[in-house]
Design goal:
Mean pLDDT: 90
Organism: Streptomyces albogriseolus
Number of helices: 15
Radius of gyration: 20 Å
Strand order of the largest sheet: 1-2-6-5-4-3
CATH class of one domain: Mainly Alpha
Helix content: 25-40%
Low-confidence stretches: 1-31
Shape: globular
Protein name: 3-methyladenine DNA glycosylase/8-oxoguanine DNA glycosylase
Number of strands: 8
């Protein structure tokens, strides 16, 4: 019976490497009190920089930041939904989690925050990157260990404006996801399970502004959700190859996914409307660079190309726009 024999919160403190968490509770029951873990990273760590790529716009129902500096996120873990609150107290990171997925999330807290990433492996070859790398010592590349939660919003971002994609993600998660476990900030939700995505009616995709092509790609992906989630245990390039077996998932989408699910330090997003020009401008003053030029400029950073791109984007050195932004689509006219 819910709440009758609720165990007391558990606390584990580690420095650096992995420490095993207590045995997970029955995934069918959600703890009334948070599970807790503290962790001391072995170097500088900026929560905002590390977790920022997981946020799909300010209204993302799966990600929130609060005035106290904490970051909240929801996930559909292999053992069920969970809510994670991450905060910093001096040199210590504190994680609190609720729901059936609480222990799963806390087990992987250091990995989520880039414990497996090694920023010192990056050797700058350009003054801009040397300066930015020095200025942002707390940047680490996260790893969620979950594929679908990054794959589906990446599919929604194909060939549309960022605002359109964020709106679609927000509407679909709020309508078809489930409420976040625990005392999460208002209107947080867990993304829908694969079956829930598969049952979304066509008119609801239309209402969210998602065309048939992207909706069909999501539906094909969730039909093989278990096989795609297995890719979280593969090397990034093998994971990308598996994702790209699904029609509608190409190199752009697979790169955007493994950058988050795997912390893929060398995966470069190709096929992007703006990124080649940004990289070209930052490294060579070439605002008309295409993918081939971008990859050539990034060649000195082989093995660390995604980190190089993150540093370029965080440097603030981007070319002024000369053309209108991608026009908003109107699927009602299709």
């Amino acid at each position: 019976m819910a709440g009758r024999f609720a165990p007391r919160p558990t606390r584990t403190t580690v420095r650096g490497g992995h420490v095993a968490m207590p045995s997970p509770r029955d995934p069918r029951s959600a703890p009334a009190s948070p599970r807790t873990r503290t962790w001391v990273p072995d170097g500088p760590l900026d929560l905002g920089l590390v977790l920022g790529p997981l946020r799909r716009g300010t209204g993302d129902p799966t990600f929130r930041t609060t005035p106290d500096g904490a970051a909240w996120r929801t996930s559909l873990t292999p053992v069920g939904p969970g809510t994670l609150r991450v905060s910093r107290h001096d040199d210590t990171i504190r994680g609190q989690a609720w729901g059936p997925g609480a222990d799963w999330l806390l087990d992987r807290l250091p990995e989520l925050l880039g414990a497996a990433d090694d920023p010192s492996a990056f050797v700058p070859r350009h003054r801009l990157l040397a300066f930015t790398h020095h200025r942002l010592p707390g940047l680490r590349l996260l790893r969620t260990g979950l594929v679908l939660e990054s794959l589906i919003p990446s599919i929604l971002e194909q060939k549309v404006t960022t605002g359109e994609a964020y709106r679609a993600w927000r509407l679909l998660v709020r309508r078809f996801g489930e409420p976040a476990p625990g005392p999460a900030p208002e209107r947080m939700a867990v993304m829908p399970a694969p079956r829930a995505w598969a049952l979304i009616p066509s008119w609801e995709w239309h209402r969210a502004g998602v065309d048939d092509k992207r909706a069909s790609t999501v539906l094909r992906a969730v039909r093989v959700a278990a096989r795609l989630e297995e890719a979280a245990q593969m090397p990034p390039e093998e994971a990308r190859a598996r994702l790209e077996l699904v029609p509608g998932i190409g190199p752009w989408t697979s790169a955007e996914t493994v950058q988050r699910s795997h912390g893929a330090v060398d995966s470069v997003t190709v096929g992007d409307l703006h990124l080649p020009g940004i990289v070209g401008w930052a490294l060579a003053g070439d605002r008309d660079a295409d993918d081939s030029v971008m990859l050539s400029l990034l060649e000195p950073y082989a093995g660390q190309r995604h980190r190089a791109v993150r540093l370029i984007l965080l440097s603030g050195r981007t070319p002024a726009r000369r053309a209108p932004r991608m026009p908003h689509g109107d699927i009602a006219s299709l």
